[in-house]
Specification:
With 367 residues, this protein is mainly α. The chain folds into two domains: 121 residues, no CATH class; 223 residues, no CATH class. It is 65% helix and 2% strand. The protein has 16 helices and two strands. It has a two-stranded antiparallel ribbon. The radius of gyration is 24 Å and the shape is elongated. The N and C termini lie far apart (81 Å).
């Protein structure tokens, strides 16, 4: 190959890399209309991408995100060291600039793949808008009434499940798959995503120390769940991650879909749903109301909540704080203005929408 031809190819490759970086920057900052994203991506392209990606990733027992993570941590530094060590004397600056440009292009490409395979769901129309959310419905009398009803459900379900064995993570697609598909039909998500088997990741030790219950691999759409979550937490955590795969990227929406899914299951699944929501209902009330209503909790649910606190107490505070800070920045970068506070916004959907209120089967003040 002549020097001129090599220079031409290098010039073309540079143009391509610059174009990729520019396109990624544009996609990161451009305010795409949510209605456009909903119709073209979330309801149009994403179900096709989801079927293709989950179909491929389900063919292997490997956790593909682990391979991507390990490769991302090892390959770039190794490649930089190799190239710089072989650079001619006086040419290291040019090699360094080339490596920086290539690394930026690869990073930009990964970001664009993230958007295409899942990340654009952060910019879809909010679930609250589609379900007729009304903030005026969320008042203290309503929250107190619903908290009483939720605690009654929790106490009854605890008693009815004492002679049963909680399912393992691998059993949950059978126990929750049909309820999950039913909820997706309610929400207009079609075609329904079948329940995916949770995987154990090399990140599990980090999850344990950071207090992370689970995550969705946004590139291969595999479900990663912290194995140390308690048996009664497993159904809700798994359904939450399934909801992400279904296209509900916002944490409050994933929590809402998980709550609906578990309520459509058997008594054990419903116990998981209410054991998630009751602490959040109590936390939304003034201290005096919290103390008064907490007294109605049965000894079984009290022991379960204490077990959750004990599990979280075994995290490493600095790791947990940094994980929370990193997650907050990630969510804000993806158009979730409230950051990690969005996890608690599930009450807006559970209390402030018709679909949420229908799950309580309890009279509300003013109705």
């Amino acid at each position: 190959m002549t020097a001129k031809r090599r220079a031409t190819r290098y010039h073309k490759a540079t143009i391509v890399r610059v174009a990729i970086v520019v396109f990624a920057v544009v996609m990161a900052v451009i305010p795409l209309p949510r209605a456009f994203v909903e119709e073209v991506y979330s309801q149009g392209a994403y179900p096709i991408v989801r079927r293709l990606v989950t179909g491929i990733s389900s063919l292997t027992d490997l956790v593909l995100f682990d391979l991507l993570l390990i490769g991302g941590l090892i390959a770039p530094p190794a490649w930089w060291i190799f190239r710089l060590s072989r650079a001619p004397r006086g040419g290291r600056l040019r090699v360094l600039a080339s490596l920086a440009g290539r690394t930026m292009a690869v990073t930009a490409t990964l970001y664009l793949v993230f958007l295409a395979t899942w990340g654009l769901n952060y910019r879809r129309v909010s679930l609250a808008a589609g379900l007729g959310y009304a903030e005026s419905r969320i008042t203290q009398p309503v929250l107190e009434s619903l908290t009483v009803a939720a605690i009654e459900h929790l106490n009854r379900l605890y008693d009815s499940t004492q002679d049963q064995t909680w399912p393992q993570l691998a059993d949950l697609p059978v126990r929750l798959g049909t309820p999950f598909e039913r909820v997706q039909r309610w929400l207009g998500v079609s075609p329904a995503t079948p329940g995916l088997v949770p995987r154990r990741s090399v990140l599990t030790p980090y999850f344990r120390r950071a207090g992370v219950d689970g995550m969705v691999d946004p590139f291969f759409l595999q479900i990663l769940v912290n194995e140390t979550v308690l048996p009664f937490e497993r159904p809700f955590v798994t359904a939450h991650e399934w909801a992400h795969v279904a296209g509900f990227a916002h944490e409050a929406e994933a929590n809402f879909v998980a709550w609906l899914t578990c309520l459509e299951g058997d008594d054990m699944m419903r116990y998981s749903a209410w054991s998630f929501l009751v602490p959040r209902l109590l936390a939304a009330l003034p201290d005096a109301a919290q103390r008064r209503l907490s007294a109605a909790l049965g000894p079984g649910p009290r022991a379960d909540f204490a077990a959750v606190r004990a599990r979280l107490s075994r995290t490493i505070p600095i790791v947990r704080r940094n994980a929370r800070r990193l997650n907050d920045r990630y969510l804000r970068a993806n158009r979730v203005a409230s950051g990690v506070a969005s996890y608690g916004e599930v009450l807006q959907l559970a209390v402030g929408t018709d679909l949420g209120r229908r799950q309580w089967r309890a009279p509300l003040p003013g109705q």
